[in-house]
Amino acid sequence: MMKPRVFVTRCIPERGLKKILDLCDAEIWEEELPPPREVLLQKVRDCEGLLSLLTDKVDAELMDHAPKLKVISNYAVGYDNIDVDAATARGIAVGNTPGVLTETTADFAWALLMSAARRVVEGMDYVRAGRWKTWGPMLLLGQDVYGATLGLLGLGRIGSAVARRARGFAMRVIYYDPYRRQDLERELNIEYVDLDTLFQQSDYISIHTPLTPETYRLVNRERFKQMKCTAILVNTARGPIVDTMALYEALRDGEIAYAALAVTDPEPLPADHPLLSLTNVVICPHIASASVETRSRMAEIAADNLIAGLKGEPLPAPVNPQVVPGRRQAV
Length: 331
Description:
Layout: E1 5-8, H1 14-23, E2 25-28, H2 37-43, E3 49-52, H3 60-65, E4 71-74, H4 84-89, E5 93-95, H5 102-117, H6 120-128, E6 149-153, H7 157-166, E7 172-176, H8 182-188, E8 191-192, H9 195-201, E9 204-207, H10 221-226, E10 232-235, H11 244-252, E11 258-261, E12 281-283, H12 292-310
Parallel strand pairs: 1-2, 1-3, 3-4, 4-5, 6-7, 6-9, 7-8, 9-10, 10-11, 11-12
C-alpha cells in the first residue's frame, strides 16, 4: 500500500520526525529559512498532510492548491498562521501542540523578567567591553523582584504557570483576562483587575494572551503612558500584541524602564531597527519553548496529529474538533 504523501516545512526533532518517516512519504524542507510562498504552494499540491510552523501562512489559497489535503498539523500551540475557518469549511482537520510547552515558556518569561530587572545583558556587555574596573555602589542598579507587583495580561496555561512561580518571590499578582478565573484567584492568591489598573499598578507586566483582532497592538502608546516609569514589560506571547514603535519611543523617552522580548513585530527585527539601538531592552529569538525535551514533545504531538488525520482518526490535539478527518469538502 502506498504511503500518504506529506510535506514538513522544517526539520523537527527526531522523536517526531521518525514517526512521520516511518508511516509517510514525507518531504522535509531542510533549509534554515521557511519555504518561500511559491515553493510551499507547489510542494503541497499532491499532499494529504502538511506539518507547518508559525512562519508558514496556511490560508484558503494554499488549501485550494492542495485538493488532497486532509490534515494540517501546526508545530506550535498558537495557530494564527492558519485560516482555521477556511480549513473547517473544506473539511481539513487542524491540530496544534498545547500544554507541553507551558512550563518551559513560563520559565523563559521569568528568565527575561529577571534579566531585565537586574540588567544582566548590560552587565555582560560591560564586562566584554573591558569597562569593569572595580566594584561600584551605583553600577548597573536594577529593580527588585521580591515583593513587587506582577501584572499578567492573560491567564491561560502559561499565565497561570507564571503566577505560580511568583509566589516564591512573595509578589502581589494581578491579572486581566476576558474570562475571569475565580478558581485560580483563590488557588494562587491573585487579583482580577481591569486593564487600566493592570497598566497603572504593575511593576512588571508579562503578556500571555493569544494574538487576535482584539489583542492586536493592545499594548500601545496610550498604555505605555499609563505605566510606571520604573515598569518592565515582558513578552513571550506574540509580537504584534505590542506596538513596536510605541515601545521604542516609551523606552527611549523613559516612560518605562525596560522591556524583555522573545517575540517581536516584525519577526525577526531588521538589524538596523531602532529598538536594537537601545540598551534598556533584551531581545531574544523566538525561543521561549526551546528546551530539548519540550521541542521533542512538540514534535511527537505534531506527528501524532498528522498521522491521526491521515488515518481519518480524531486528532489528539485538535483545533477544529468538529471536522471529521478525511472527509474533504468542496467550497
